[in-house]
Batch of 3 targets.
Target 1
Amino acid sequence: MMKHSLQIALIGFISVAMFSCKKDEKANISKPLTVVGQPISDTILPKKDVNGNVIPLKGTMLAGKTYHITADVTINAGDTLYLQPGVKVIIEGDGKSPETSPAFYVKGSLVSAGTKEAQNWFTVKETAATPLSNANFKDDAVNDPAYAGYWGGFQCGPDADLLLIRWTHVEYTGGPWGSNAADFGAKPGDPRYAVYMNRKTGFSKLILEDSWFFGSKDDCIGKCENTYVSIMRNTFNKLGGTGGEGVNLKSHVFGDMAYNLCYGIATNGLKTAATDGVNTVVNIYNNTLVNCGFRQTKATRNGSINTETNAGGFLYNNIIVNCKSGLRISYQSEKGKPSDTLNTSYGNNLTCIGRGNPMGGAEQYMIFIEPKQFTFKQPTDLNGYVNGPTTSLGTNDGTNTANDSLKYDPMFKNYDVKTNSLGTAYRNSVIPAGADFHLKGGSPAIGIGVWSGGNGATAIPVKAKAPLLVQYGFPMTVLQSGEFGANVTPPNKDLGAFPTDGSGNQHVY
């Protein structure tokens, strides 16, 4: 911290001198890099003390450095590990055992402060034992290294305060749990999630912004509980081998998921599912989901956006393309009980499927809405579902039209929906090089979203009799803003993660 103070003082002195000498020129002084605690100069981590015990990690990983993680890392309660922009972390894991699949155990805070110009990385080095994925692995869950699970991710336990990952690449997670699995609600041998949070009392804070999550053996953001979340403007790709979600939030979670691209996820791109008697309310808006749900062959698991047991929120402005199924507000699934329909409001979503016919293989269908769930086509929705009668249980016995449905094509700038639905192309988990999910002029998804300046069908929705929706709002303000807070992008008048005003997802593919 003393170094940080000296940097600020020196910059201030230089600024005064330049202003005094050249009053007619405007000095462009960049902000000094943040330093939290002591700089970490050792690049092989973690270190051990004289007795051979692993030393917990804290302080600042420095811009431009590459660090190698050779064993589990612990960040103690009250401590912070901070990564300046432009840091690369190589985890030396092979996924074959808990001992050879290092993880970050976060009891305090971990902040990866990458920037668009200087991104951070948590990944593995390509070796004969750890081959990396490539574009040739389009639909091969058995052999694709993306699903190998080489390291153990970020496991945030009962004392964790903050996990903030900004402009950061996180790749190849899913290494197996060992003897400590029960402490994290798992069993030995289960794959670890890229991110897990479950604070014992109060709330942890999970902020994922402008980052890339690529390759996981099961869920990527998995079964987080007792957490405030802001999951904004990320790309989730090739997540879950034969099962698993992009994001799977559980009990007592509140916040927003918006402007994310989910592409080629095994089951759902975005999912919330609480438990009986414990609420979860997460707003899910302005996301784009493509080619999700087809590596999960079990019935009633959906394939795009799913809410289950006692979970609710505002679900608006999403684009779903060539997924196994559109939005599901569940009545009942294989594991889940009913969603919290009282605290759910939804509409203004577009669902496009290349064809409404069987695509080949067990249960390989694309449908707009799964029948016998709580989901009804809303007047503001664009999809080919025909609502049926409401049953005594409140579910929908409607039908999906079997005809070609390309009239709901969102018209992406550089991604042809029809071409990518033919044959088995809809199962392709590789984002095509140069794909652009912004909307062309004339797209039906332009100008029909709910937003702060809208009126009528595009006004920000209100559900006055829903106590949690009224309490938490849309979007939510459960997390402060700033360098160590959330940068929330509100709903846009265009649908999807890439609105025409350029305010959403900033990634280029």
Target 2
Amino acid sequence: MSSHTRIAPALAEGISDRAFRLYCFLVLAGGNQWVTVQDAADACALTNHQARKPLSDLRKATMVESRRVYELGSHGRKTWHTHFRTIQERTNGVAA
């Protein structure tokens, strides 16, 4: 397996079912790609509002990281969008 993402924290931290579903989507999205809240919510059959709290819980558990980007929204105005991705491993050459 080329990815060294650890699933054990997701199982041990007592996170919600929604948070686990979102975490699995972020892992399966692969390549540590930044994903918008809306894209993650759509992939897990949730609304944007239903996905925000579980994603925040994952960030607090240091399982994902986030960034805010000021970009053009769907209505043609600039707005803040939050993107998430799994935490990248900071160790080099360590096999899982």
Target 3
Amino acid sequence: MTDSGQAPETPHRHLSTAGLLGWAVEASDGSAGKVDPCSEEVAPDHLVVDTGGTLLSKKVLLPLRFVTHTDEPNRTLYVAHTREHLKDAPRFDRDLRVTDPGYRARIDAHYAGTRSPGEPGI
């Protein structure tokens, strides 16, 4: 909380997880999948991305802070990662979600070393 009694501003606070369901996810090097309805289970700080494919479909967690921008008319959100980096993320586990400390540590470790858009460099 700030001195004004209001919560501090958070990145992408204006994004509604429910409003992003089904949107395309565009990585820095092309299409990475789409926002899966399971995202409602992990909101508000993460999205679940279905990386697509029939046999090789994989659902992964993506911290919302890595969304760089959205294209509302085309229902597309852009992320600051490659397709491969997203596909290599730990598989979304409905039982663990982001509340289990060990699972959360794996998610954080996967994205460690990468910065959110606009975050100052080291």
